[in-house]
Design brief:
This protein has 360 residues and is an all-beta fold. The two termini are 28 Å apart. The N terminus is likely disordered.
Length: 360
């Protein structure tokens, strides 16, 4: 299939603007009223949901000397950003900035819940309670960290590194760690929304997973490229990933994923998927490609439905803007927690936001 050339959702229900540096991350606030995008040169762009179609009203703040990571803040209208300067900065929707952490190394990863947040720098994870000036714990790891995530209930924190993953209980007074071991370089991680499994991307163009009930190992391979993006669908039935010329979805039901074939969605011949993001309330997947195309695809319930071509696909935007300007590979996508709007960012510095609500 190819993306239709008619007017896209970005043209009819959104706005777009290009910045000088690549976009390293995008987020939506917990209340769904503000978006943020972070550029590699340390600029944070704040976009009000009420004025998302007027890109000239977007607020641009200089936050870091080189930016690396972005996450929701614990508060309903705040964001956390980490940089090469070793700082974590909390930025509110009104532009107010507060330094929350200062360290010696790059802040490579950030993760948060409404009550806690954590940052990873070198081999250490610093775990903070919301609003606290000092960390609750500093968690040591055997090697440099590549990914950080809380589980859906906020009770456990997982960090990926060389040769596996370490999991910690947030509220535990001691620092007992559960080690999930598998040799090799783990480059990122994703936790099943029901807490049933944890999956990492690997340097070797494959995924590795663990069933958390008993530590059973899972391996998912066959990718032509490295997997840079993973996202579980809302109920955890499917794990969607980049790394191929379609979004690859592994079934986490019916005994899967082991022994079960993956499903593929939204193939664009000659283009690879670079980013995926599952909708928080519906069976919809946002899929970004290496040319800047972004599609919204319905996720079928079963693999036979996908093979039959069922499920609608809507173009959020095509690979080029009017006038022929290339958007570049899609680096990041995020829905609002309520699902009524979406933001994306690209390697060429483009940021787009689209209102998906019925009244939009």
């Amino acid at each position: 299939m190819s993306a239709p050339q008619s007017r896209t959702l970005l043209q009819t229900r959104g706005a777009e603007r290009q910045f000088e540096a690549p976009i390293t991350g995008v987020q939506a606030s917990r209340d769904g009223r503000t978006f943020a995008a972070l550029t590699m040169d340390g600029e944070l762009i704040l976009i009000s949901r009420d004025g998302l179609r007027a890109s000239e009203d977007w607020q641009c703040l200089s936050v870091h000397d080189g930016a690396v990571s972005l996450a929701q803040g614990c508060g309903k209208d705040s964001f956390l950003s980490g940089g090469e300067d070793g700082r974590v900065v909390e930025t509110r929707a009104d532009g107010t900035m507060t330094d929350r952490h200062e360290g010696r190394g790059w802040v490579d990863c950030l993760a948060s819940t409404p009550t806690h947040w954590a940052c990873a720098s070198r081999k250490e994870v610093h775990l903070y309670a919301h609003g606290a000036d000092e960390p609750l714990k500093v968690l040591e790891h055997p090697s440099a960290l590549s990914g950080l995530a809380f589980d859906a209930k906020g009770k456990r924190l997982a960090a990926s590194h060389y040769n596996g993953v370490s999991m910690w209980f947030v509220q535990a007074k001691d620092a007992n760690v559960r080690s999930l071991e598998w040799k090799g370089s783990h480059t990122g991680l994703c936790i099943h929304p029901g807490g049933e499994a944890l999956v990492t991307s690997m340097q070797e163009n494959e995924l590795h997973g663990w069933r958390l009930s008993d530590g059973h190992n899972m391996r998912m391979s066959g990718y032509p490229r490295k997997i840079g993006s993973m996202s579980f669908t809302r109920k955890g039935r499917w794990l969607a990933t980049s790394g191929a010329d379609a979004a690859v979805l592994w079934p986490f039901f019916g005994g899967g994923p082991m022994g079960k074939p993956p499903m593929e969605l939204a193939r664009l011949p000659g283009l690879f998927v670079t980013c995926v993001c599952a909708h928080p309330t519906d069976d919809i997947l946002a899929i970004g490609f290496e040319d800047g195309t972004v599609l919204l695809a319905e996720v079928p319930n079963h693999t036979d439905e996908a093979a039959a071509g069922e499920g609608r696909i809507l173009p959020l935007c095509n690979g080029q803007r009017s006038g022929g300007t290339a958007r570049g590979a899609v680096n990041a996508i995020a829905f609002t927690p309520q699902g009524g709007a979406v933001i994306f960012g690209t390697e060429e510095g483009h940021v787009g936001v689209v209102d998906l609500s019925a009244q939009g």
